[in-house]
Amino acid sequence: MIKGGKGRLIDMAEVQEHNSPEKGVWVVIQGQVYDITSFINKHPGGDRIILKNAGKDVTDIYVPVHPSDAIAENLDPSQHLGQVDPSTVKEEAESEKDLSQRELKRRKALKNLPPIGTILNLDDFQRVAQTILTDQAWAYYSSAADDEITKHFNRSAYSRIWFKPRILRPVMEVDCSTELMGHDVSLPIYISPAAMAKLGHPDGEANLTKAAGEAQIVQGISANASVSLDETIANRKSDQALIYQLYVNKDRSASEKILAKIQKQPKGAFAAIMLTVDAPVMGNRESDMRAKGEEVQTGGDTEGGSSEGKGVGVAISGYIDPNIGWDIVSWYKQHCKLPLILKGVQTVDDVELAFKNGCQGVVLSNHGGRSLEYSRAPIDVLIELHQKRPDLLQKIDVLIDGGVRRGTDVLKALALGAKGVGLGRPFLYAQSGYGQEGASRAIQIMKDEIERGMRLLGITSLKQLTPEMIEILPPSFDPYLLHRQEERRREYVFEHEAATEE
Ligand code: HEM
Ligand SMILES: Cc1cc2nc3c(=O)[nH]c(=O)nc-3n(C[C@H](O)[C@H](O)[C@H](O)COP(=O)(O)O)c2cc1C
């Protein structure tokens, strides 16, 4: 099937002829022609999407969802056939008539981004993101399990904690720097590892790496990042600390290879490994599935299940081993010397087990409400930990993420003993549209809010935050409040859409 040598110029018409498994499946990616016939059945994103696009230039679909080393890691060099002859490619001038009203509106909103100075808080980034992201990207970022109750409750659970500020204390100078996994950081927040930042912006995770480096905060690198590890290392400042997030692969040697690669990086590049344990199978994220507009096969969440039509989340997670137990910690220790943080711990008992098994940290997290619907809000788990086993907060580093949107949320978690607070979606939204500038502004907004909160609380250093400075109201669940939040968000989107109409 492969004719001619690598580097030969290939007529686009020849590519187009290779549009089925029988005739061979060729695609063009960034001007290069690949024969992926033998790869179709191994493709982590499923065979359907490839068959639908066989014989075409797939650059626009391919680039946002693949790390730049995906081809080198998965294809044999012989599958690179050569370069497409540019003189044979018909520029498909995109006719506005071919675009849906929705897509036209989206593009207009992207061109008319509100000036970044009008973005006052993290919710503003989300509102803008909803107007500028493709349906697929918005669904992937915003979706959560089942009815998305957990996602909303993660956030509103913070509202049962109130402050008891002290007065008449000099607060001109405040210092919100701290230490996270042995590294000095300027703020107690970090970027939670979240996949596929390129769905929101062409530079993807690079925006976050650069912004985190400038601000001296830690970035969690998702196992499913759309920027390759090598590029991330290249984007990192020489003294910048990252955390690598790992899912244990059914093929253990693949995970071992990644751990070996992480440990070969410059000393200090990785502060720790975050092993995510709250998603042995993917949560049921229906908006993510709907955005694909394809029929979904039911059944078989694990071995042998089909990922057809199930959305980005399921497509990229098929390799995760659902069959791991606590002995995974000793497996890890055999292969990696970096501190281990278990991400997705949701009970006091499991914090204790993490400590007893020799983990250095835990992240209290329910995956931003994307895994088990009705899993408790992480801040509620922290409250329970603080009340029942405050000793554990001294023995193991407790981090937390999920629903954190304000500087005051961060101060509440720290007052209860958390060492660091992660934010996931806000950074994905902030870099969509605004790129690195958006990520930097999101960090600055959090810094301003944390510093202002500290001053108003009457403290000048994070060490002065104590449980005595907060009051915890009894748990309550107010579906009406959740509903109002959703409505307010939608109202804004309609306003913004109206504003971008001519
Ligand atoms: C050229 C060879 C290809 C390789 C080596 C490859 C590799 C991969 C890998 C490794 C993933 C998982 C992403 C991750 O873990 O971060 C993935 C997902 C995905 N791939 Fe590919 N891929 C190839 C071609 C294509 C083509 C031609 C298309 C579409 C025309 C495509 C569309 C997708 C999509 C959309 C996903 C995300 C999951 C989804 O939405 O279903 N891929 N691919
Ligand atoms: C779009 C998206 C992708 C994510 N990808 C990952 C991932 O690859 N690995 C992981 O451990 N957690 C992942 N998470 C979960 C985040 O690390 C984090 O726990 C969650 O986003 C925190 O909630 P928040 O979005 O309310 O801040 C993802 C979250 C989102 C929203």
Q: Could you name the CATH homologous superfamily of the largest domain?
A: Aldolase class I
Strands, total number: 17
Count of individual helical segments: 20
Biggest sheet features:
8 strands, parallel, barrel
Low-pLDDT stretches: none
**Whole-number tally of structural domains:** 2
Strands side by side in the biggest sheet = 9-10-11-12-13-14-15-16
> Which structural class matches the secondary elements?
alpha/beta
Average pLDDT: 91
**Overall 3D form:** globular
- Cα(first) to Cα(last) distance is 52 Å
* Gyration radius, rounded: 24 Å
State the gist of this model.
The chain has 502 residues and is an alpha/beta fold.
Q: What does this molecule look like?
A:
The chain is α/β, with parallel strands linked by helices and 502 residues long. The protein folds into two domains: 8-88, Flavocytochrome B2, Chain A, domain 1 (Roll), CATH 3.10.120.10; 124-496, TIM Barrel. It is built from 20 helices and 17 strands. The strands form four sheets. An eight-stranded parallel barrel has the order 9-10-11-12-13-14-15-16, surrounded by six helices. The chain has a five-stranded mixed sheet with strand order 1-5-4-3-2. A hairpin with a 3-residue loop joins β2 (19-20) and β3 (24-29). α6 (122-132) runs antiparallel to α19 (425-457) and α6 packs across α20. The protein is globular, with a radius of gyration of 24 Å. Flavin mononucleotide is lined by residues 140-141, 154, 192-195, 222-224, 245, 276, 343, 365, 367-368, 370, 401-404, 423-425, 428. Its cofactor is heme b; FMN. Residues 286-295 have a biased composition (Basic and acidic residues).
